Amino acid sequence: MFMSLLAGIGAAWLIEMLRSRSAKWLIFSGIALLVLVDFFQGPQMLSEVRGRSVDIWLADQSGEGGVAQFPFELVTRAEHTFFTLVHRKPFIGGFFAAYSTPQFRHIEPILSVFPDTQSVSLLRELGVRWVIVDSTRYQNYARVHSAIESMGLRFRIELDGQYVYELR
Questions:
Q1: Which terminus of the chain, N or C, has fewer Cβ atoms within 10 Å?
Q2: What is the pLDDT of residues 102-143, one digit of tens each?
Q3: Same domain for 90 and 19?
Q4: CB-CB neighbours of 21 under 10 Å
Q5: Total domains in the fold of the chain
């Protein structure tokens, strides 16, 4: 901001130094043109943003209950907040930037070790019905899948590497 102030003072000084009215207008017009060029952003490219197949499938599922995404570190990514606009269900997580909520700070260490009995119990307590697991984030997903089913979650569908389980 200080540089802008100095530029303005310098421009005023330069215009005052000129004797000819037409020269003043020429310098003023040149400065105004430079400012406009500086702020010009050009054409903005747009890209279509769509929900994932799993979010479209979830949108068609009736009933109450929230959604949890695993591995749990994914829930703080902005696109997962966007996905809630597609499926329209309550979501455990959110895009917090630097300031997460006290509830999130409480549940994060528990849900970060999913699947285990404590994390599944907490999901029930939070009213989660749908659990989405990104299989590409796990080394041996067959073992993770077995562990999830052994905790009482029912496998419903797999779409593009996203496994959906129902918690009843």
A1: N
A2: 888 898 899 999 999 999 999 999 999 999 999 999 999 999
A3: no
A4: 8
A5: 2
> What would the two tokens of residue 112 be?
């970060």
d(CA 97, CA 88): 22
CB burial of residue 58 (10 Å; 0-12, 13-18, 19+): buried
Range of the domain at 110: 53-166
SS3 165: strand
Domain-located, residue 45: no
What are the strands, taking DSSP E only, across 4-151? 66-70, 128-134
| Residue pLDDT, tens place only, 57-85 | 999 999 889 999 999 888 888 788 888 88
Residue 128 CA from chain centroid, whole number: 20
Residues 6+ apart with CB under 8 A from 95: 76, 77, 78, 80, 81
Residues 106 and 157 in one domain: yes
**Which has more pLDDT, 19 or 142?**
142
Residue 46 in domain? no
